[in-house]
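Quick one from the shared queue. A colleague (R.T.) flagged Glycosyltransferase family 61 protein as missing a structural entry in our internal table.

Convert sequence to structure tokens.
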Amino acid sequence: MEYQHTLLDFLPAAWTVAKILKGSSKRLVTHIPIQRAMLQYLGISEANMLELPFPKHGQAFLLCTAPHKILQIWRTGRGDGGELPTKHYRRGGFADFWHRLLNYQVGHELSDAIAKNAGWMEDALEGNQQITFLQRCVVRRRLANEQEALALTSRALIASNRSEGLMSLCAGRLTWLEQVSQVRKSALIMGAHGGAIANILFARPGTGVIEIVGSPKAAKIIDAKG
């Protein structure tokens, strides 16, 4: 869960203050190593990071500031001037996810910044036509017909005489930087709803997305069985 929530809930918000951090004494709070690694590829110095590891289960930490110092909490609302949602997340309810509307406004900027700092040759990516199928490759929440979906995709490309190459990836077996690289090469990204598909944050403008989701009937069966 660390990877997908870093992409969906941390990185886009961190990008909004990147320019403020550079050359200043301000620091951004991080919680896990991958957040620090990604921030460095966005050009943010370690001197501008303060890592506070998540406490163990049942514990908590209190973050305080010295006198005359300021601690700013980043939180966004709906953009209409209304009050921020306060309802706690629960199964069947909703959460304060308005901030995720930011993700696809700045995703391409994040992708380009990472590519620049990784030293990737942009001209090598131009015109690259890859269809990327993101597989689960795990036992938990396994898709019973994932291989059938992959084979169907292959047959459809062949039947329609498409020139794109089909790349099947187990995202969880790649480094985060490898995942960014493959997503940037993609003309179309396919995958099941879940952590791997969060990589579309790094997709280049114009990339197509096909997300595989369970049917309402299947969801009811899963809920009934707990």
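The chain has eight helices and six strands.
The first strand starts at residue 28 and ends at 30.
Added to the table.
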